[in-house]
Amino acid sequence: MKVLSFILILSSVFIFSQKKIGLDSLQLKDVQEVLGDDYGNIYIYKKKDFSLTKYDSLGAQLGKVMMTFPYKIQSVTNPLNIVMFSENAQEIKFFDQNLNEIQKINLSSNFGFIRAVYAEDLQFAWLLDDSNKTLVQYNFRSNSVINSFPFNINLQSLKDFLVYNNRIYILRDNIFEVYNTKASLLFSANISNARKLSRNNDDILIFGDQSITRFDGKNLIEIFQNQNAKIVDKNNAGFLALIKDKLYLYRQINDN
């Protein structure tokens, strides 16, 4: 097992413009997660009442859903099909652009204890089955298993994962790891206060509380940081940062 060297390139050369987004402080109080889609809409998840609320860029509420259990929101990149997974309920839910539930998949009847889910597209999902120590590629449209790989790694500290090009990207409390489908460790690096992963073309993005780091397959490169932020996120317009119950959008300024 070979662990690749870790290289972190600072982003201090980047210059950003700042714009305040029109959500008031009450809406942003007790927020667990902030997400932005590519249409300028903002999604606020509050763990206190397990609610997800959608706003436009002016602060007008566009939809809201209240849940019984905590759910992890995978992404709002496709706002027509928002994916959530509940480890407590062992189910995947899909919501439309108005946060109406359009599909629910119960996993407990077909699998062991699923620790995490990564919905690859609108047909396939990857499941980390902790009780059976397997990585499963599942076609939830036809309710069939496409592939199953032995994956005997410790998942107790798992925060997020995704699968891309036969590589499994694992985020733990303070560690980012890359495995192949044989569960061999290919890369490992320390990451402080990391929250979630996402994919941007061939790159993997690692979101922390105050920074966003890109993994290009070899190196880790910090692409955004704000030391005053509580939560940061990214959409195609720029970088979102929640600072003292106010939400800001940062756009990179090209220095020609």
Written description of the protein model:
The protein has 256 residues and is mainly β. It has two domains: 17-105 and 228-255, Lipocalin; 107-225, YVTN repeat-like/Quinoprotein amine dehydrogenase (Methylamine Dehydrogenase, Chain H). It is built from no helices and 25 strands. It has a five-stranded mixed sheet with strand order 1-22-21-20-19, with no helix packed on it. A four-stranded antiparallel sheet has the order 2-25-24-23, with no helix packed on it. A hairpin with a 2-residue loop joins strand 15 and strand 16 (167-172). The chain is globular and about 45 Å long. InterPro entries: 6-blade_b-propeller_TolB-like.
Q: In terms of topology, how is this protein built?
A:
Layout: E1 8-9, E2 15-21, E3 33-36, E4 42-46, E5 51-55, E6 61-66, E7 72-75, E8 82-86, E9 91-95, E10 101-106, E11 114-119, E12 124-129, E13 134-139, E14 144-150, E15 158-164, E16 167-172, E17 175-180, E18 185-190, E19 194-200, E20 203-208, E21 211-215, E22 220-225, E23 231-235, E24 238-243, E25 246-253
Parallel strand pairs: 1-22
Antiparallel strand pairs: 2-25, 3-4, 4-5, 5-6, 7-8, 8-9, 9-10, 11-12, 12-13, 13-14, 15-16, 16-17, 17-18, 19-20, 20-21, 21-22, 23-24, 24-25
InterPro entries: 6-blade_b-propeller_TolB-like
Protein name: 6-bladed beta-propeller protein
